[in-house]
Structure formats: C-alpha cells, structure tokens
Amino acid sequence: MGFLTPLPGSLRISDPAALAATWFGAGLLPRAPGTWGSLAALPPGLALAWLGGPWALVAGAGIAFALGLWAAALYAAAAAKDDPSEVVIDEVAALWLVLAILPVTPIAWLAGFLLFRFFDVIKPWPVSLADRRLKGGLGIMADDMVAAAYAILVILICRNFTEVL
To answer: Please, which pLDDT band fits residue 2 given cuts at 50, 70 and 90?
Structure first.
C-alpha cells in the first residue's frame, strides 16, 4: 500500500467494514483524509442526483449513515481510537445531505462542498459538542451531520441573496 495510511492490524482493505469506513480507501490517502473522502463522495453523489434527484441523495445519505454507524464502530474498535481520521463515510453521508438541497451545477456543488468542509474542520458548537461527547459509530457520524446542518443553514440564508444556490 506504500504511501497510504496503514489499516489497523485486524482489518484488511477487502473487509466490508474497512471498505465502507474508508469509503473504498479514500480515507487512507495521506493528509486531509476528510477532504479526500468528501471528494470521493462527489461522483456517486452526482450519479444519485442524476438518477433520482434530491430524494435519491437523501436516501443515499441515510443508507451511508446507517452503514457508517456499523463500519465506523468496527473500524474505531480495531484501531483503538475514538474517531480515526481514516473513517470518512461520515463525510459521505453528510455531504450528500448538503448536496441534496442544491442544484446540480459546478458552482452550487463547490459551494456546498466548501461550506461543509469549513464547518467540519472548524467544528463550531454544537459540532464540537457532538465530537467530544458522543462515542462509537454514532459519535463518528453525528458531528459531520451537525456540520452538514450548518452548511445547509448557510445555503438557505444565501438563497435570499443569490439564485446560484
């Protein structure tokens, strides 16, 4: 695997939990795994949007969230960490929720991507509260969903001033 972050000793990349948790290895890329995971969420998100519109993205986010609860908990236990940075399925589920309220245009999706990453990185309250207090799979998944809610709120406010979003 060379330059990739190594998996915990008990997991292999072929393990379903490792594949899901790292979003098919995107979270194993060095430096900023959350950004890599978010970028890797865009092509399947675009496919969902084209095939089924916003509701397909919402359904996909729900499925990714449920899968993430399981996969993130197993990965975290194997890594003996509360929130391993390689686990990026939380970014996938949250970003798809943000994208669901946006038109499928490069500008709108770039804005959604940047807003979500901003709130996921800076972790304003209550994102930081969820990050600190919740543990296991739910803890890993929840803070990103709160960051997504912040991004969605900003997008809804911006709609009062622009037609781009």
So the answer is: low
Average pLDDT (22-26) is 97
Residue type for 133, please? R
DSSP letter at 26 equals G
Q: Rounded to whole angstroms, how far apart are CA atoms 163 and 4? A: 41
For the whole prediction, is pTM greater than 0.90? yes
Contacts of 106 (CB under 8 A, 6+ apart): none
Cβ neighbors of 56 (< 8 A, separation 6 or more) are: 48, 49
What lies within 8 Å, CB to CB, of 95 at 6+ separation is 38, 41, 42, 45, 112, 113, 116, 148
